[in-house]
Automatic annotation (TrEMBL), chains A, B, C:
<feature type="domain" description="Beta-galactosidase C-terminal">
    <location>
        <begin position="616"/>
        <end position="673"/>
    </location>
</feature>
<dbReference type="InterPro" id="IPR013529">
    <property type="entry name" value="Glyco_hydro_42_N"/>
</dbReference>
<dbReference type="InterPro" id="IPR013780">
    <property type="entry name" value="Glyco_hydro_b"/>
</dbReference>
<dbReference type="InterPro" id="IPR017853">
    <property type="entry name" value="GH"/>
</dbReference>
<dbReference type="Pfam" id="PF08533">
    <property type="entry name" value="Glyco_hydro_42C"/>
</dbReference>
<dbReference type="Pfam" id="PF02449">
    <property type="entry name" value="Glyco_hydro_42"/>
</dbReference>
<keyword id="KW-0378">Hydrolase</keyword>
<dbReference type="InterPro" id="IPR003476">
    <property type="entry name" value="Glyco_hydro_42"/>
</dbReference>
<dbReference type="InterPro" id="IPR013738">
    <property type="entry name" value="Beta_galactosidase_Trimer"/>
</dbReference>
<feature type="domain" description="Glycoside hydrolase family 42 N-terminal">
    <location>
        <begin position="14"/>
        <end position="386"/>
    </location>
</feature>
<keyword id="KW-0326">Glycosidase</keyword>
<dbReference type="Pfam" id="PF08532">
    <property type="entry name" value="Glyco_hydro_42M"/>
</dbReference>
<comment type="similarity">
    <text>Belongs to the glycosyl hydrolase 42 family.</text>
</comment>
<dbReference type="InterPro" id="IPR029062">
    <property type="entry name" value="Class_I_gatase-like"/>
</dbReference>
<feature type="domain" description="Beta-galactosidase trimerisation">
    <location>
        <begin position="398"/>
        <end position="607"/>
    </location>
</feature>
<protein>
    <recommendedName>
        <fullName>Beta-galactosidase</fullName>
        <ecNumber>3.2.1.23</ecNumber>
    </recommendedName>
</protein>
<dbReference type="InterPro" id="IPR013739">
    <property type="entry name" value="Beta_galactosidase_C"/>
</dbReference>
Length: 677, 677, 677
């Protein structure tokens, strides 16, 4: 863990001195000191600069930069520069250029532009990582290795097509197994030879954003593409490790980024790092969920906040300024959810090209007398005062929400029953309900151990992987509570339907059979009518989108449909299974229903909120050495108050003791240290 | 006619046993019997399976399937499997792959993926039809031959380009005639050599969905493409006929499908069959019109309903369930309009790929205890009871609506005067008015005999083909009533304007001159002001979209514009011509005006509705052996009643006698047998 | 100047006799005479006709046409026909075909279809211009040479790519200068060799309509593309001049046409001509501004109205008729703003292809008894009566609005801060305010002399070119008033930010510093709160889109923000600089604020409106020989009145004297001759 290397959270960000002259570098060092900056990410996009041809490498400027920073007390997060290949390489070795989903060979330009199966790209990206590691293996200023940058994209070139066939052979063994997995007797797709298989693209099986004629092929392509890019990462990772076995190596992730199966990736990262860019309309609960996902990638291990903007973005439609104190508030929100660094994109704002209107610690005006710089400096000082008290602290949750990339891919490539279904939105609906009540949540993968949780929620668990139904059964058998929804238990891992009645492998656990699935027009709604009151729930609630026509096969019917020809059929059921319970939510409810249901279920399980706070005031906790650190964060613009209810707390930011009713100013933050109960 | 081969309407649908194992096949047979199924469409997408390479054919499984079905009393509708070529063929002979309108060579994938001018596709599709016909020519279980499946699409490859030039040479003889037909002196398009002509695509004359710089070229491409695909059909048709001269051969059409000129196609089909997939918002009058079009393709001959879904679709945005009894209601609607079979896509629901969420008679649960299966079985039993009473019965109409594919292509490729003009919508506006009053309508082509009709309506008869104006004049001269609208009589069959004043060749018949055509913004409206009352019409009505600035040249002015600078100019005219009348509707009226006008015109001609029924209750009739069968269909959810007004009727479905006021339950159907007046 | 060659404004338009037979030509001549037509544009799209292969030219028909027209008293505006290459050329020399921004090689079709860097196109287009000039150099009927037609479009082929490198070498000299100009150290774009540079397209740096990863590359491509097409024009221009040094050569422009830098082009045109096609919703002020731009291209020299439609267009979504008298009204509006000809597209309406629904002087009906022909004839007679009185008259303005094509390209390729910013809309907002008060405006370029103006307005002067800040400082120093807005002074001519604080080079002149730029969601608004009243301005006004967070550095604060965290910061400032003033408008205000501000500023400078008129009545003036000609134009449908306030005027159209209160009918026009004050 890098966090143990310094007595405080690292504070800094992306730094592109290659765009500036020496005098500016000196001025930067002066201002970094003012701002309390102690880490800088170098070399993110310098490949073309440091490698002007196949055989030449120029590291002199980089040596100088790393040394200068180190002499000023600033560590380097050293990027390998492979997120954009040099122009000379594209010209000489066109295989580095991608082919897009429309079959168009790309030309040099942009970034994230390298084919992951290009022999040239693999050779030279591995080589530069090797050269860098060899050169800087003993430099005391290098703290973290940052492979490439924001990996993503896809390619449909001939090298990828050939690699896909190899990947399939490894996965399935025989062409007959492929035919079976993809149900190729549908629409006459029977394959006799591996070479008959082509990549699914807009020239073959795909059209529009999310449409495929063969979901199985598309799903395997998504897996293959994620794996291909992961292979590129691993080449560089191993090249670094060869020289520096105990180096800390990461690559910056992007939260709910659809193309890459980050749970699989995280197994190969020493620490997770990610770039957080909420838009103007992103709910704060969504940002929190993304942080929790990042923490969940390595089972709760703290992560690096690798990038956030000090104020403005440039690639949104409308790039509003972060209002005063919002940058600080969101920085602490990341820490509350597991970050052990606070870092920015970028330290100095570019003078030209497409990110020149992206905010930076040092703005175009070039001096420190700006609102943005003042806010950055104040936070820098605060973090120095905070020291190492929260470093390496963990989050403790009794509630887990399951998230699965392959399920995401499969749900949204589905042809029918509705275009309205968005997997991440559904996950967020349940997450947001816990968030509103300050109930701590872990985001887990299908590989995670369930035994430490009291409650597992798996919205839209469409794909049930081998063994997972049994794992859930064991969890419930042993007393756990499981909640799932409509459009669950439908297919296996190759997107073949589990026959014999929905929800397939979950049918026994849930004690129900879904005979039909109705899809509603957006303006068409149905009702959830409670059979009896349950906690705060009584009367009726709106639902819609999809409506399962359910039959109980042992489950208690908690609520029924209120309208349409399936009025009176079950919509909400609870099945007692062993020592636990399994809930099924057969349609998409309004938020108040989810709130009432989860409040009741958590109450039953004795799961407590971190604190009771007014709406818009978040409380999230980390634990360390027997102490609890409650981060109270007021996302509202006005002062709010909450009651500590007998808790004695110490606010680390103001060094004051608090008890009873506490005020927190608009966009304010408090870090309450309390002895763990 | 296949309908004479069995004592009842065939009942069944698409069956894909190649996706299932032997045990499932046995279970299928059991359930088919339960459902009263007696026809199954086999082999629709099995090409890759039955022909693994250029020279090998494996028919053993198909033999077995046909035999098993036949032994269970189920006939086979045998498809030729050519709607999706095998992957090995695409790999070995890339000429089978299409080039799309953006010039992109397709790769293997999807279906309907073969270039219609591919030598390879033509060779092997003809060959498999030949092989199948040879093998099964004496099999008593084969009832119908189903060539390919839902033909469609277009191709812009070099083979198509070469074939287009041959097609043009045949049509025009000389390059000078082409230059004249396309008015190539506009925009410097003069051609000197056939090889200078390229296909109109998004790389040459087209952009967006409906835009062309040269309408004449585009129109000929549409004709050519329809003909090219028809050639493919004919190769298979003839291969089958070579072995089985008295076979019944069809291909399944798709109603108002723009790309193929079905009137031309139907000349080469032994029976018309089609796939009916109304969407959630499709008006029932539109479905009725599509059935009438299908019946009209072969001048009133009954057709096969080849596909409909038992309940759910998968390719709509929101795939709602068919509400209880709706499948039965819509099945009878097709019969009322001329269907002699009721068939489904599909008999067993797929386990994987893009149609796994499309409904089926046997759902994923696999047993018969489902709402869908019960409804299917009940209809199956009902059809057995109904027997052959309505088989081969005809529809008798005194009203015809003209529909012309080439006119459709031409109207919608027009550059100006408005993007709002939709030919099929305009046709439906007039059809729907007759439908609301249960007036029987035939949809006819320009080749149809007009003498059997009292009233011919030709909305937006933009293109007047050689001799058609004279044909209309003769019809009216002899006492017929003709109704047409704005944007009629504008061009000849190569989209060249008929000079000398709109409506061109129809000017004499209509007794008017349209000096200008105003195009209105959607929110801009004008008024139709009646000069005198006419039947129920009086006062004023809204109109819009296009407004012809008319001068009467002998026609009576029935109504004038109420607004704008052409206030007081004629908008509705009636011209007495010989013994008949020719009406012109110079703008796009609100429905109530069309209702009033058509009610008056039909009353004048003594044309009677089948029955008077409340809104939402349809009555449509078929005739046979001196008997009338009135299908009364309540499209509303609630019970309605209507008055038989002295008619004595026998409801075939309940075997009860009816007279006077009759109730019909929500979504109910009655088939009233009455002696023909 | 061609206008001195005839005693009246030329009246006529595009004529395509090659689409018609000899009899029609004779009828045309008869009708042209009726309409008072004395100029016809010939040969616009006849290349394929007059040059059937590489070596053959057939001019006989053209000879005949020119002679016939001339003998009928009609001059020829002779087009060179190069706006659409022949099909034989595309077949034999594919290099004439463009490659589009998606990398797709075009096929023959459409028009404007030639690659500007095609050696073949350059060779043959120059050759035909040469042949035409040689043949007709002594023909007395040729009045103007019309090179090509409506130049535009772009190409991304290999020839263009090679030419781009040559163009860059010429502009920058070394690859290092290119790297610096484009800031290529951003995203690893460092170039070592010219051949590494590729065109920016959707395959490299671009996506969507206005997005680029490298603004500097995109900007240079826009310059290069405009220059490449200009080179094509110049080849033809010089070929004509070689034979006829004193010929009048033009090409028809298109107003605010983004792709071509018309200020640069106009330097090479003997007279500006343009095609005016306002849409149904185009404000009349926008048309006026376009005319003023065209007049401004050659510093106030009168221009040709080369095309307008007599009534209807065909390529709009809804092609409404021009209401009665609107064609006349808009014709005079063009004259009022500097036109010395009134010309139509087209004289006879095409019979086929995509413009057959575009209006013409002679409609499809073919005779003169149409509303459109009557209006054309009446205007023709009126222009004959008007004679030469307004010919060559100039417009005199004390107000200039700066317009710059390169700024337009740069502003709208910007990534951030908002997608709402539209440069031409912003320019129009200020123009429209002057227009509403009949204040004469010149549209000027960065090369224009400022000393003759009292007020210069430069909305969104994002790019400040070398020396321009000094030029503005000198203007204000000497007493001028300068007004600019938010998002000004940001970058230099290669789109690199001017460091040290916005508005960069304008900071000293404006006396302010913009610390941050907030971008607002469209529904989010702020307020401009006046510190004191200023003329009619007091209280508060709405503003939005972008909000500069300003600090005064000497400027007077006229108004402050009323909301948000920057409430109380300056939004409107005025800086006294030498003898003049420089205003800054820090956000996008509602129109009433702009009206109040500009009214006050013009009043301060003693700038008077041409006349005071009611809303919708435009008054614009031209001056000649000591006389003022005030064009009063009522754009409303109803009669309006205005007061001449002591002015004695003579209406040239009715030959009546006017004074005091004057009525003007709906869509009426008066040309008031008054002695210049």
């Amino acid at each position: 863990m890098i966090s143990s290397k310094l007595p405080k959270m690292f504070y800094g960000g992306d730094y592109n001195p290659e765009q500036w002259d020496e005098a500016t570098h000196q001025e930067d060092l002066r201002m970094f000191k003012l701002a309390g900056i102690d880490i800088a990410t170098l070399n993110v996009f310098s490949w073309a600069l440091i490698q002007p041809d196949e055989v030449t490498y120029n590291f002199e400027q980089l040596d100088q930069l790393i040394n200068n920073l180190y002499e000023s007390g600033i560590y380097t997060c050293l990027a390998t520069s492979t997120a954009a290949h040099p122009a000379w390489m594209a010209k000489k070795y066109p295989d580095v250029l991608r082919v897009d989903a429309d079959g168009r060979k790309r030309k040099f330009g942009g970034r994230h532009n390298s084919c992951p199966n290009s022999p040239t790209y693999r050779k030279y990206s591995e080589a530069i990582a090797d050269k860098l590691a060899e050169r800087y293996k003993d430099h005391p200023g290098i703290l973290v290795w940052h492979v490439s940058n924001e990996y993503g994209g896809d390619c449909y070139c001939e090298n990828c097509e050939a690699a896909f066939r190899v990947w399939l052979k490894k996965r399935y063994g025989t062409i007959d197994q492929v035919n079976k997995a993809w149900n190729t007797n549908f629409w006459g797709h029977t394959f006799y030879d591996w070479d008959e298989i082509v990549l699914p693209s807009n020239l073959s099986e795909h059209w529009g954003d999310n449409n495929s004629t063969f979901q199985g092929i598309s799903l395997d392509y998504s897996r293959f593409n994620s794996d291909s890019i992961l292979d590129c990462y691993l080449l560089e990772y191993n090249a670094i490790k060869k020289h520096i076995p105990n180096s800390v190596v990461t690559t910056n992730l992007m939260g709910f980024f659809k193309q890459l199966d980050y749970f699989k990736w995280a197994k190969h990262m020493d620490i997770v790092s990610w770039d957080s860019y909420p838009g103007l309309t992103t709910p704060v609960s969504f940002t929190a969920m993304a942080h929790d996902l990042m923490r969940g990638l390595k089972d709760g291990q703290p992560f690096m906040l690798m990038e956030q903007t000090p104020s403005q973005q440039n690639w949104q439609a409308y790039n509003s300024l972060k209002r005063p104190n919002v940058m600080r508030l969101w920085s602490y929100q990341s820490v509350a959810h597991g970050a052990d660094t606070v870092m920015f994109f970028q330290l100095r704002r570019s003078v030209g090209a497409c990110e020149k209107f992206h905010g930076a610690v040092i703005e175009h005006v070039g001096h420190e007398n700006t609102r943005v710089f003042r806010e950055v400096s104040q936070l820098g000082q605060e973090l120095q005062q905070l020291g190492d008290r929260t470093l390496d602290a963990t989050v403790e949750s009794k509630v887990a929400i399951l998230f699965d990339w392959e399920n995401w891919w499969a749900v949204e490539k589905s042809s029918g029953p509705t275009v309205s279904l968005n997997y991440v939105e559904q996950v967020h609906k349940y997450y947001a309900s816990f968030f509103r009540r300050n109930v701590q949540v872990d985001i887990i993968s299908v590989d995670s151990d369930l035994s430490k949780y009291d409650l597992v929620v798996a919205p839209v668990l469409y794909m049930v992987k081998p063994g997972y139904a049994a794992k859930l059964e064991e969890f419930v058998q042993n007393g756990g509570t499981f909640v799932t929804t409509f459009f669950s238990g439908i297919v296996n891992e190759t997107d073949l339907v589990t026959l014999g009645g929905y929800p397939g492998e979950l049918r026994k656990l849930l004690g129900i059979w879904a005979e039909e699935i109705d899809a509603l027009h957006p303006e068409h709604r149905n009702k959830i009518v409670m059979k009896d009151s349950l906690g705060k729930l009584n009367g009726s609630y709106e639902c819609g989108m999809l409506c399962d026509l359910l039959h109980s096969e042992g489950a208690d019917v908690i609520a029924e449909y209120g309208e349409d020809f399936y009025q009176g059929m079950p919509v909400i059921t609870r099945n007692t299974f062993g020592k636990g319970e399994a809930w099924y939510i057969g349609s998409d409810p309004e938020d108040s229903f989810i709130d009432g249901l989860l409040e009741q279920i958590t109450a039953d399980k004795g799961i407590q909120p971190v604190l009771d706070t007014p709406a818009g005031v978040e409380a999230s906790a980390r634990y360390k050495d027997g102490k609890q650190f409650i981060f109270v964060m007021n996302h509202n613009a006005e002062t709010e108050s909450y009651d500590l209810k007998g808790l004695e707390a110490h606010d680390l930011l103001t060094d004051t003791r608090l008890s009873g009713s506490v005020d927190i100013e608009g966009r304010g933050v408090q870090i309450l240290e309390v002895n763990k109960a």
